[in-house]
Amino acid sequence: MKWPLIFLLSAFGVAMGFATVYLIPVTFEPFCWSGIFIISAFVIARYCTVQYFLNGLAVSILNAVWMTVLHLTFFTIYATNHDAEMQIMQRLLMPDDPQVMMFFTGIISGAVSGIVLGSLSFIAAKLINNNNYTARTLSV
After folding, report:
1. pLDDT tens for residues 14-65?
2. Going by C-beta distance under 8 Å and a sequence separation of 6 or more, which residues neighbour residue 88?
3. Fewer Cβ atoms within 10 A, N terminus or C terminus of the chain?
4. Model pTM score
5. Is residue 70 a part of any domain in this protein?
């Protein structure tokens, strides 16, 4: 596993955490994540020589940790800027404790997005390797 690369790519999670608290509406968030996943998959494919899927999984899990921590830390601001999501949470399983619901949602989204990014990383590695590129070393 390339931990320096994993932590470097997880900076996207920190940026998106702040962006989703303050700026980005939930309707635009999937487009941002799609771009981040494509970039991350090709970076992983380019700089790793093995374990593409596991590196992608680790990046997404760390992204989910950053996102969840930031959403919980700035919960009041997040709730103010995301009224529709808060109303949905109130209708779901834990209406009295939306922070707990956010925590579990973060875990689930990290696992699901990890499978997606891991798969994209694996596919990108196959595409890059078929084009006779060699993995480069990353100096971090």
Report:
1. 999 999 999 998 889 999 999 999 999 999 999 998 999 999 999 999 999 9
2. none
3. C
4. 0.84
5. yes
